[in-house]
Amino acid sequence: MTAYRLPQGGEIDRTQPLRFTYDGRQVQGYAGDSYASALLASGETVLGRSFKYRRPRGIFGAGVEEPNIHADIRLKGHVYPNQRVTTEVAQDGAELRACGAAPGARSDRTRFVDLFSRFIPSGFYYKTFMRPNWHLFEPSIRAMAGLGRVDSTQPDALQGEQRNHHCDAVVVGAGPVGIAAALMLAEAGQSVVLCDDGTRAGGSLLSRAAVIDGMEGAAWLAQALDRLAEAGVTLLTRTTAFGVYDHGLIALNQRREGQADLLWRIRPQRIVLAAGAIERPLPFDRNDLPGILSAQAGLTYLRRYALVPGKRLVIAANNDTGEEILRVLRSAGAEATLIDTRKGTTIRSARGRQQVQGVTLSSGESIACDALLVSGGFTPTIHLHAQSGGKLDWDAAKLAFVPRPGTSAVISVGGAAGHFTLAEAFAALPAALGVGHAPQAEPQTYRVAEAWPRPGMKGRVWIDYQHDVTVKDVELAKRENFVSVEHLKRYTTLGMATDQGKTSNLQGLALMGALTGRTIPEVGTTTYRPPFTPVPLASFAGARSGSRMNPVRRLALEPQHRTAGATLGEYGGWLRPVHYGADDSAIQSEAKRARQTVGVYDASPLGKIEVMGRDAAEFVDFVYYNTMSTLKPGRCRYGFMLSEGGIVHDDGVLVRLDGGRFIVSCSSSHVASVHAMLEEWRQDRYPDRQIWIHDATAETATVTVSGPKALAVLKGAGIEAGDLAHMATGWTAIDGHELRVTRVSFTGDRSYELSIRQDLAPILWDRVIAAAKDEGGGAMGIEALMILRAEKGFIVIGKDTDGMTRPMDLGSDAPLRRKKADFLGRRSLTLPEAQRDDRNQLVGLIPADGQGLLPVGAHGIETRAGVKHSIGYVTSSYPGAGVDQPVALGLIERGAQRHGEEITLHHLGETRRARLVSPCFLDPNGERLDA
Amino acid sequence: MTRHYSALSLLKEGLTGQKGWQPAWDDRPLKPRYDVVIIGGGGQGLATAYYLAKTHGITNVAVIEKGWIGGGNTGRNTTVVRSNYFFPESVRLYDLSLKLYEKLSIELNYNIMLSQRGMVSLAHTPAEMEMSARIVNAMQINGTDAELMDAEAVRKRLPIHHGGPDARYPALGGIWQGRAGTARHDAVAWGYARAASRLGVDIIQQCEVEDFIIEGGRCRGLRTSRGEVRAERIGMAVAGHTSVLAAKAGFRLPVTSYALQACVSEPVKPILDTVVLSPGTGTYASQSDKGEIVIGGALDRVPSYGQRGNLPVLETVIGGLLEMFPAFRQLKLMRQWAGIVDVVPDSSPLLGESPLPGLFLNGGWGTGGFKAIPAGGTLLAHLLATGQHHDISRPFDLDRFTTGRLIDEAAGSGIAH
Amino acid sequence: MQIFSCPFCGPRPETEFHFGGEAGNDRPGGGASVSAADWAAYLHLRDNPKGTAREIWMHTTCLEVFVMERDTLTMRAQPGHALGSHG
């Protein structure tokens, strides 16, 4: 191919030359070039290799339909793999490398593969590489496959952005029909977004001649763009509408120079699809040679980039566009011949090895050429219509699937509706849109004759260029019964390449129809799925990354914890102090100090859900396993909440402030689920009763003081707690601010939970910490608390219980026997499974082999009939603080009845011995509570 | 004609234009009576037919499929195979499957491209590390391969993973199952279909069940879009639509149907060597032999029979992927799709006789039916041939919902499969 | 992104909603005397219709629990209505 530039014309700026490299070679172009146009103008022909046969390939198209040429582009420190050279604007200084070829497209090391093509038809890999083992062959096949390269040394690619938008109409495609539609809607007062995946609006007017409303195409376009601006239409170029989703959402991806792409999520009242049509290639032997271009692409290169694709051109078309192209090429001074296949003469084969050098016609005549422009008719771009559930009709005159009106929320117009002349497209607009007056265009004709690939065609006739699917492959699929259109696609991989078959699908199914005696509509199409063209993953992810991903909740006292040098960690979605100081040896000393004097911890994430109203007592009786209605005002009771399946969902203390006011303290990670569960039952079971539920967790901070010196600390801090009994609650104040004191213990020591409006928490914290220091104590983190609670056998739901744990497995069976009222999950507790006698039960474990800590996650094992069985597992394990030995909790089969027994533990292939004991390691009589 | 697949037969056929290949499976008309009819020409149904013929010698069998074989979840999943389960019942089921997969290419004479490149299930927090140890130990005790990885081991397996201490989801370690991997999903369906067809099984496509023929309280046959067919035993493997057929048969099931989405990137040169799952981000990924990054995640939020994707879950899943692998921001999404899966309360399959005698179920696989195809087929074939449970399928009977003996993997391991 | 209509807040994105099960799946009364089969049916058995469904949903921002009619194939959704009032 010896393409050349014309001295003037086109959209390029000849005063601004630019340079880039392709496979290391210098290429020159001008501002306004695409990489493809600059490459063609530089005389480049072999620019890529096909996926399977490693055939030399050149540029075929001029836009998103391009099947052949992709490059990895390196520009300004960023890497963009798999870029279609036809859609990218050429940039000075870019480095391009052909995808899937090494070291380069011209010199690809694997080009010998084509010599063996007859042995590797579609699906050959299903028939071989089985012995001895696929793994022997897989690595070399993986290495050969793949297109571009991700550069993992450049992880900082741009982060995508997203925008939500609302308007009356989105018009997809800013060609003449899309522009006319947008104008009609906007001038009728509608807000309109008009998008186009090209670099500028105009569509076919940028390359084809037209007369609209008496004006030349270019003049009409210029005034129409002015009117669009006046009417307030948002025009988005380089923006692809790639998907229509449920409830009328349309998604657009906008390319932006030097910035990450922008994903638009728009929910318009209506979507107008004016995306035009894509030209099909023609079938003949070696129709994949470099130098063979889509005729419309040739026209685009000529008109927009002032580039004549060759010195001697042959045009082959099965429709009226051939003559138009012939005229334009000749008027540009090119030597061109037209083969109108409708007149009976077709191309039998192309000649050449690395590029086309001539064609042989069905008449036997040979014509030398260095570029061949082909048009096999047009396929409407109906993807968005079909994605939104729209049906298709076969238009036998136009040889195209066209949208069946009224079958989707998308209104198709112009080429997308099968209206291949402007006059026809404009004429249909007013009815389609229901508003305004459409422009007028001079009548043209469009007639097309069949030129499908045919069974038994001689030579190698490509259907899918990128994936090397030929006529013979479709015939093979037929022979082997892969005749359903989806089987055809999957078996041959037709249409599964990065172009998703935009230029190939219809030919494939036309051939399958011919092979099986079915019409094209009988064969049907494969399902259209988003995206229309590949969309950066970054656009979908948007801002979701790092701390913006599932953001952690922050404590009101975080600044105080940080000042105190806390190491923070995520617990149940909250960022909490793990321990104070950087060294985790602090955990043990914080726990010991709390046992000896006092420890203060931030318990703010603990759930505080208020249940209020006259009927609140009846309600809490239903949602708790334990009887709660008998609780006296000012008192607290520990209990479980179950799922209807009888599984322990949460545990915690219920506080009764007064007759009609309870506070549900739930695990910090369960606040949302418990709150939702309470609301659901309130609204479902007690809709007309007086019950109000309010989650006060976020508005309240809680500081817990625990240890033998706890009461002294309260005094030191100026908090009057009186002689509050264990499991009692009351109100007091600090500096005149209301403070709720609840005496419950998660450590086994005397403990006070002090709850205050969260903005006042720093006052409380500073005062309590100062008083604790005076008593020889101080702050402690969550991990120290974990030691203290484990020594007492206090469980953490989800750690010491699993999704099978019933309350009886935790030693609580009285409510099931005694409670009168119905409660959540009750019936499930009497099912055979819940009553099994070999259930896993909460138990304590201590090492029985003289070694240290038992590993969490270790399983107890027993051998039965020669087979190893798990009998449960260690769930918590800590060095003791109040006791002089490591302590562990576990869920072990029949554990509660086996205190004193030794069992074998399995951990990562090693075994340990452990003794089962009571889960309460410290102060079994609870004397420390009042110490 | 060439029947056997091998390098040699490819070579021979290459010299004669690939013209001697036989149909992978034959199209035959639906007969009025069979010994067994299987509803559903996905992997599970086709495998059932194959094992009925192969193991039990029952060849008078029809598989009826409303669309085209392998077109449901078999052709829509992310092709992962593994047996990293917690309960012994689950491990026995999925390890049987993995073992059958390991010899399936040779057994079927069809390359299903089982690629055992291993799977990493990441642990992001100390609590997840503890749970990983619990799972690894369970797997080891139950006799399948598993290792607990530390942060360094993760870094070696996944050099491009963003999992340092500063990451939102640092990798403290994880679970490694070396025998896990992927297999070519279409090939599994086609391989079973070809082998079953050779053994005499009729595969009837474009044949939709309209109703069950129930006589004397027993299922005796089916009314289909291609006419009536009778059989003493009928199997059903129609994941995603199990409830729809159950309603026709007059019973309800513990199933809700949801869409499960997946997507692939454009193909790139090898960069991700194993299957990787991150519970923190809710995303899993692998790289196909073609080079596409195959991406999956959680179920959609809304019960659905619509086989199509939706943005919210896709965005979350891809957000998770890019958090794990920031270099993948360079990639583009090429295709997204969805399958409809049966979601069961305990996320374990339903295997056994249905409430309608004579009708046997294989369903409820949730998001994990593909990896279970050889086992699911073996077990349903056993049920259909003998009328009795295989030891491995017994725990998965429907009666577990009445006794309460669920096999809830999420309950034991904290990981929903 | 689907849009559901909360009876309290109006149309909101699907991500704010939580599926609560099929409408009409009433909790059997009778406490311990409920048969295991009835209890299992309540806990687990579902119509799971393909097409029109009546479902319970919760709007997780305002916690309104409501009934919504929806088509599980086309995804068309009717505005929700509050429990009790029409339910």
Summarize it.
The complex is a heterotrimer of chains A (931), B (417) and C (87). By secondary structure, chain A is an alpha+beta fold.
Describe this protein's structure:
The complex is a heterotrimer of chains A (931), B (417) and C (87). With 931 residues, chain A is an alpha+beta fold. Chain A is 22% helix and 29% strand. Chain A has 22 helices and 54 strands. In chain A, the strands form 15 sheets. Chain A has a six-stranded mixed β-sheet. In chain B, strands 1, 2, 8, 9, 10, 11, 17 and 18 form an eight-stranded mixed β-sheet that branches. Chain B has an eight-stranded mixed β-sheet with strand order 5-6-4-13-14-15-12-16. In chain B, strands 3-7 form a two-stranded antiparallel sheet. Chain B has two domains: 27-110 and 184-253 and 346-413, FAD/NAD(P)-binding domain (3-Layer(bba) Sandwich); 119-179 and 257-343, D-Amino Acid Oxidase, Chain A, domain 2. The longest helix of chain B has 16 residues, at 126-141. Helices cover 30% and strands 26% of the residues of chain B. Chain B has helices spanning 7-15, 43-56, 88-102, 104-108, 126-141, 151-157, 185-198, 242-249, 311-324, 373-386, 400-403, 409-413, and strands spanning 33-39, 61-64, 80-81, 119-123, 147-150, 173-177, 181-182, 202-204, 209-215, 218-224, 227-236, 256-265, 275-278, 283-287, 293-303, 332-343, 350-353, 359-363. Chain B is α/β, with parallel strands linked by helices. By secondary structure, chain C is mainly β. Chain C has one domain: 2-Layer Sandwich (Folate-binding fold). Chain C contains one helix and six strands. In chain C, the strands form two sheets. In chain C, strands 3-4-5-6 form a four-stranded antiparallel β-sheet, with no helix packed on it. In chain C, strands 1-2 form a two-stranded antiparallel sheet. In chain C, a hairpin with a 4-residue loop joins strand 4 (52-59) and strand 5 (64-71). Chain C is globular, with a radius of gyration of 14 Å. In chain C, 33% of the residues are buried. Chains in contact: A-B, A-C, B-C. The interface between A and B is large, with 106 and 112 residues.
